[in-house]
Amino acid sequence: MSLKTIFSGMRPTGKLHLGHLVGALQNWVALQKEYRCIFSIVDWHALMGEYEDSSHIKENIFEMAVDWMACGIDPERSIVFVQSDVPEHLELYMTFSCFTPLGWLERNPTYKEQLREIQTRDLHTYGFLGYPVLQAADILLYKANAVPIGEDQLPHIELTREIARKFNHLYKKEVFEDCQAILTQTPRLLGLDGRKMSKSYDNAINLSDPLPVIEKKISSMITDPQRIKLSDPGHPDVCNVFSYYKVFDPSQVQDVCAWCTKAQKGCTECKKILARAIIRELEPIQQKRQEIAANPDKVQAVLALGAKKAKAIAEKTMQEVRQQIFR
Ligand code: TRP
Ligand code: SF4
What we know:
Helix content: 55-70%
Bound molecules: tryptophan, iron/sulfur cluster
Oligomer: single chain
């Protein structure tokens, strides 16, 4: 039996943060052991949102490749490539565009939310509406069985399934199978201020932050607002620091709960201990990051080889697709 295929992608829009690490990358790293994994740096998707200023995309692609490998994505095991190196993505995207109803895209909750939330860029474009169609093409080009993603992406997977079914129905062959979403088990990490962790909110701890910066960022975290003096007992359940403990130092969760509710330790000390746990996790990643980044030619070679492997699969799918349509 052949291995099941996993596909996932990330937009190269800036530095990776802890949310990417625990929400996606750690999951991807684990999946490599059991599946044939294909991971793409989706630069066309980045352009769909940031077409006004594309000047950082190239640099972000390099940084993303380095971050991925430093976190344990292994290009000997998995295919790692840049979306625009395999133009078949665009060909399949165009194919799907012909029959994807506008209604499916206009109803998409992720799309509606982004139009509402993002005020600094004009996203009322043809391309941005079609964002999930390109995502469907990414996934189906490799006939992926499963897609590790965040919860916010579930509507896009549902749409991918609908597109696959519609293709099979129109062109009378089961070219594409249903794909499944794989959600991460780790509880979601919020940003330093308690909102969603995001570069645009400036509330993230980046994987590449120098260790003193990490300490400083953690010390700025908002804690239980009712705990003003050291002698006030705290409520870990409403404290974001506590939720970080659950992710980065689960063995210490009971102790934290005790020292907090019994007012034995203050928040400053509690945060210092957390910072140490996070630094313990990030230090080896940063070291590996430096080694990898010192050899940019090698990184480019990894991406070139990845593109070659991806293209071989993509070409086969496109031949099948063209044959079914233009019989
Ligand atoms: N839309 C995804 C995100 O913003 C990125 C992405 C593009 C993706 N193509 C994909 C994820 C294919 C999974 C599979 O997170
Ligand atoms: Fe949060 Fe720790 Fe302060 Fe309790 S002691 S409120 S868990 S920072």
